[in-house]
């Protein structure tokens, strides 16, 4: 028993005196316990109801919702109203419920001359320290390396049909569930459920319609949700994939054009199954296929969903025109005219 008691004493940790906020020392176990409890108590209180500093950083030019309350108005609300809003925000987090009236969008029609082509390692959009320039550099560098080593680089640029507007909610929630604690998952689920929209034309509004798919565009969380939804896009050791938002490029390099095309086709077949599973539509006719090479070649066609992707000698991607020899001549001529 003496040996057992001595061993227990050796294993017992001795906590050194703790310094209190008033610079006095807590020496006894009771004093130390009270000091630690006092420090931890700040973590077990409701969120502060004082106006948060972030409210000063809201973009005042953003259009208001159906309630016509602009961010400029919110920034100038009296303290009492801000306190009420804070209570609502806290209740939203506590109950994992997003208020229905905040889930209605207003769509403003405008004339669009050109369609807007708007976490994985291959995604360069909506991420810190990533940009369109990084994605273009990846594509250009892969092509240059292939040409410098006298290889062939086969590339497909995929045109995804209205990705942000057609994100499958059930599929997105399936991917969100294992990533978040239950309360936050339920809050996101409430945020996506029963969303509505109406169209504003001049001063008139249409009646409300349900939104059955898509991420809420214009919201800060929309890019985050889209990245999660596409983060498990299949990759291949034989190809390189890069994306900026929904603008996706697939590249395959090989010593001959047949192998380069075959590697690309095998990866596209895998992607096609993934797109079908997650209800993502590809515009085959608007996608592009190009072979970068210095030598003549007769390349086999590339298809997706049994539809041949149009072959081209030059492709415009993220504002840059790539020609099959990567001379930049077409890009320079186009920009010189403008």
From TrEMBL:
**Name of the molecule in the record:** Reverse transcriptase domain
- Keywords recorded for this protein, A-Z: Nucleotidyltransferase, RNA-directed DNA polymerase, Transferase
Instruction: Reply yes or no: does the keyword Glycosyltransferase apply.
Output: no
Q: One short Pfam family name for this protein? A: RVT_1
- The UniProt transmembrane annotation reads none
Single GO molecular function: RNA-directed DNA polymerase activity
Its ancestry begins with:
Eukaryota, Metazoa, Ecdysozoa, Arthropoda, Hexapoda
Q: Reverse transcriptase domain spans which residues? A: 91-322
Source species, please? Cinara cedri
Q: What InterPro entries does the record point to?
A: DNA/RNA_pol_sf, RT_dom
Task: Please indicate if the UniProt record lists Nucleotidyltransferase as a keyword.
Answer: yes
